[in-house]
What does this fold into?
Amino acid sequence: MRWGKTCVINVNFPRALLLAVCLAGQQVASGVSQTNFSDMRLGLFVHYTYVGRPYEWGCTTWSDGSPVASLDELADKLDVQNLVRTAASMRTQYLQFTTWHANMNVLFPSAVMARRLPGHCSRRDVVGDLIKALRPTGIKLILYIHPSDGHDFSRQDQDRMGWNDGPNFSRWNDFVNELLAEVVDRYGADVAGYWVDGGLPPQVERARLRQTILSRDPQAWLIQNSGRDPACVDFGAHETFAEPFAASEWQMNAVISSEWWAKQGFLRTSPEMALKYTVLQAGVPGNAGGVAWSAGPHPGGRWETGVQEFAERLGDYVRRIEIALFNTRPSAAYPTSNGTPLRKARIVGTESRDGRTTYLHVLWPPRGKDLVLPAPADGRTFTKAARLGGGEIQLSQDAREVRLHLGDGQTWDLVDTVVVLK
It folds into this structure.
């Protein structure tokens, strides 16, 4: 699904805007160069996990459903190049990856774990290999961490690590912070941020966790699942994605298959719906992180049925509109309210960083060629309109409304028609 349409030129349209509109579908707008989590619109969230003991939610399996035999087998069989190619095909700006999950089995050689909790670290440095593979792409890496994972430990390991000590849980916090210090010291600025799962129960000394990371990497993004405690983090995140698929100021993490990790699931989210929701998040003032679509690979470089096709198709859709999605901010003329359900978001507005160009994403097109909108919220006056990728659009505006009319031979795209307004 690539651009191959002829660009229809209106001689009265500014040449600079025409050039941007005509080439937008052929040139790749840089979507991976930003350094702010607030600038992020699209991510891939990858769980790749081994538990090693009974766990109610399960963990990564081989594609035939058989269990992974050991942490080292899981680590050794991750096809890092395939993972990065999949992320790149989706046009993702960042990749979130599980450094450890249930029962705290970490995917890198750890002197801390070897000393404190033997058998809970891999020989292969999966995180290091992932960093190397990501570096040429510009895709940012966020590490998933779980500083309260003691609840999944055996009672013996809980007692050994101080999980059951009671306030101030000093032994547990000494352990967690020593491990995090090791991670940040090892990978440094190659990791853009840390996604904190498991909530922040009494066992976690929040300010100390923040200090451990930021004292070593002051630029690191700190994101909390299901919360945003300023004593520890700067950004909030959700992991529950269900009807009405509402817009949020917080990052949304959404499973596209039946589970966070690969276990013979089937695709349950279409790329078309994913594109619409990605755009919806981009239009919310104050949003940080956009949406991270979640799927994990099987060992050996395979994915659950439909996942790679999802990534490729979503990437094609994003490529068409990325000038109106990446390196933008929510529109001042047509802002999207926090909590807006996807089905009610007829249009979503984004705008260029300088505010001079408004991109109007028509997610649910009208029946005819006319789209009537209320007057811009910021009082601006538009003088020119064009369709991203080429095509004339007639524009009229008065004190009450803005009216757009498609030209001859033009139809609304059922996924996202982007109108460029000047």
Observations:
- The chain has two domains: 15-26+328-421, 37-324.
- Residues 223 and 235 are 5 Å apart (CA to CA).
- The two ends are 28 Å apart (CA to CA).
